Amino acid sequence: MINSERVSNNSSSNPRTTLSRKKYITIKDQFTDESILRVAVHECMSICTLKQKLQSKIGGAIGQIRLRYKQQILSNNNASVADCNIKNESTIYYAPITPMDNIGMIYPYDFDPKTNRIMA
User: Does residue 49 sit within a domain?
Assistant: First the structure.
């Protein structure tokens, strides 16, 4: 009887033990190093959910959000926080993905990029 009482007293229904499973992650801007968001996460939370929380804060599309943790880009949206070995009080860096429309294009000197034609 005494052993069963000890087990029931140490159950996970204690609010202090359930709160200790929560992790807090800080998301910072990669270029300015300023803190954007502090998120309470669980180990089973996906990277996509993190991106959604960040999207609600800063706007934009989820596909335009790149997250980096310890020099590793978190590109698998289905991976969980535990899969990426993200620890409590960690910092994840955010960098926007810019579209590569005309970057690196070489035009002739008489080309007008507004009309996409060679000037006469």
Answer: yes
* CATH classification at residue 89: 3.10.20.90
- Find out whether 85 and 72 touch, Cβ atoms under 8 Å: no
Q: How many domains does the chain have?
A: 1
pLDDT at 103: 63
CB neighbour list of residue 43: distance below 8 Å, 6 or more residues apart: 21, 23, 80, 81, 82
Instruction: Give per-residue pLDDT as tens, 47-80.
Output: 999 999 999 998 888 888 899 999 899 989 999 9
Residue 110: left if φ>0, alpha if ψ -120 to 50, beta else—which one?
alpha
